[in-house]
Design goal:
This protein is mainly α. The protein has helices spanning 16-19, 26-29, 36-62, 66-90, 98-101. Helix 3 packs antiparallel against helix 4 (66-90).
Amino acid sequence: MAHMIDNGAVPRSNRAEVRNPLLGLPAVQRIADLPPEAQALLGEILSEVAQDARGRAQQSWIKNKGPMAAYWKAVGAYAEHLRRATKRLSTRCSSIPPTALATPE
C-alpha cells in the first residue's frame, strides 16, 4: 500500500509489473520461451522502433500535428516497454513472482 509523503504525492511502486504493465500480459511472458538469440534480436528491433517513433513524434510536434505526435509517442513508449520486458525476461529475473504474470480469471 502506498503512503502519503510530506508534499502530498504518492510514491510509485517498485514492483516490476507496476512499472511496466506489459509484463502482466500473457503474450509478453512467451518472450521468455524464445531462444536467447531471438530475444536479443527482438530487443534490438524494438529499440530501433522506439528510437524511430520518438523521432517521428518530435517531427510531428514541430509540424503542429499533435494527434500524430501523440500516436508516435505512444508507439515509442510501448516499444520501449516491450524492449525492457524482453531484457528482463531474458535474464529470467526472479523478482517477478509467477503469480504476478498470471492472467486473472
